[in-house]
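Reply to dn_fold:

You asked what the input looked like. This is it:
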Amino acid sequence: MAAVLQVAKASQEALDRLAELAAIVMDAPIALVNVIDTQSHLVGQFGLTEPFATSRQVSVDTTFCPSAWFVEQPLYIEDAAEDPSFTDRLEGFALDFAAYAVCPLRDADGHVIGSLCAVDTRPRRWRRVDRRALEALATSVVNELALYQDIDRRGRLLDAFAAAPAAIAVTRGPRHLVEYCNPAYRALFGTPPLETPVRQALPALPDEFFFLMDQVLAGGDVYRRTEAPLTMTWPGEQHPRERFFDFSYSAIAGTADEEVDYRGVLVVAVEVTARVLARVELERHARRQELLARASAALSRSLDPTAELQALARVVVPELADLSTVHLLARPTAPGADPPLPVVTDRVAVAGAAGVVLPPKLSGLRWYGNGDPITAAIRQGDLVGVPVSGAQPPEWSHNTGSVATFDGGLRHLVVGPVLVHGLVVAVVSFALQADRSLWSDDDLHALRQIARYAGIALEHGLSYQATRESALVLQRSLLIEPPTVEGVQICARYRPAGRDEVGGDWYDVFPRSYDQLAVVIGDVVGHDITAAAAMGQLSATLRCLALDRDDGPSAILDRLAAINARLSITPFATLLFATLTRLADHWIMRWASAGHPPPLLLTSGGVHMLPRVRGSALVTTETPPRGEAQINVAVGSTLLFYTDGLIEWRGRDLTDNLNALMARTAASQHSVIEPLCDDLLADAPTDDDIAVLAIHLVDRRHGS
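and this is what came back:
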């Protein structure tokens, strides 16, 4: 052991380099080569702090890699705090660590003489390629110890590089003569001629790479860059394409004589293209979801369908298109067939990116089916691409006021029908400039959604126009009937204030999953159509948020509050959002509140007011995060949700009114919820909107 230790100390510089290579390849902040007798001698190290970087010696009881002394195979710990063999020993180690990989070092007789460790201060997963690399490097460390006196250290370091999964190259001197490249490097960049300047050997590399090599060699520093893009024609390929790499440049010190400069640069490259593309795609998908959320929000800003269509057209520019238009058909027609010609439309919405010449909004445009986008969309009955030649504007643009638009460089065009009640009532179009990439499948899916939202906007607008003289019809269109759910009885009542019979109070019940219901009760300030419109927008937005992801009630209300603050849907609204989850013998209710009165729980033991949870009302400014509560609800129980119109009597204390509500509720047969709701409304104040929602969890054993 003493002889091994002496050789190890003599080859300390080479072992330090192997430790550095292990840290680079394993992407770890610390790497160590231990030789162990009564002490752990750190004969090779990278990333250590003082005093260990100088002393290079640690007690065996507190060494970084104690388990290597006791195991026969490599050991990979991903989180020492969670590993039962370490949880009672962590405080005794010399330095904190969370994850480490260790490979024993064996002499020619198979005896463990030390270890090669990669240490990370955070928990992590050691990949299969990491394990292979560490074990290959451990072999190189053993070779270094055994052959130091006979083999050139630098050559043995390059042998270790050959087993590394990372691409590694070594250059020499200020001209960066290619001295070595490992198999992984040759597979990525080809095989450059040795003893050739790297600029000449790899002319496809950008000048930036050679400039960095000059800087590293001159300054003796280490340069690292993550996810660096590199576009070139790769070995075995015909056309240039972009790939991404984590790069590391390290200066190699050397002894210069009068003829040869042995200084050089160690280049390490790890391809991370798959990681980058996955993240880019995830970010792109998130942007599409945000865009669709904005489009959905635009549907409830106005009851004027033309205004909503204009808002939808603006949503997609410039992220998804350089031009967006909406044409309303004078006569709705069936999709998937040739329409009667000419098709007459009004161009009612136009939005474009900077520099695009917008076609004017015109009425009475005529389309004759000669390859034009309107008839193409109707015939297809779905999103379809329309060829646009770059030589001159399309023929149909001359009589539709869009010649100047296509003279500006628009080339890629897709159109889609907008359906309402099974008929094409409008056509949306999207165009890109010639220098932009074509739409991906995800983009086309988003454009289809925009077309569907346009149909929703038109459907809402047509419904509003048909019922605008009747406020009652409008209110009923916004307050839908609760769904039919097995094991649940639901009763909802609404009574508006004023002659218009329209207000801002609402309720909603909808399934989030097979075994979970979402329950909403809310109150928007006001007693008119504006309040009802805001209520409808909040309700639709809340539904989208609740169905978009599996967040809890408080997180969903916080997201709704942020949207309201940004879009100014309403200056003030209170809201309670709850989820009811069915279990084998009971239900679990979680709820959060935005300044709304707490619900009541009616059981065989009496009436209970559920706890208030922290939460500000919805306003047009940012509000603090909301709290959340949870209870178990037995079958046979009834939950009562209501708006403040049920308990706000002028001139009376609110606490007294709540107590009176509980007394009236206790006097009822709460399992029969329709009479309960009717009785509560009959006794309620008459100067405010009131919404009441009762949910009875049926006890099937007793038939109720």
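The radius of gyration is 36 Å.
Hope that clears it up.
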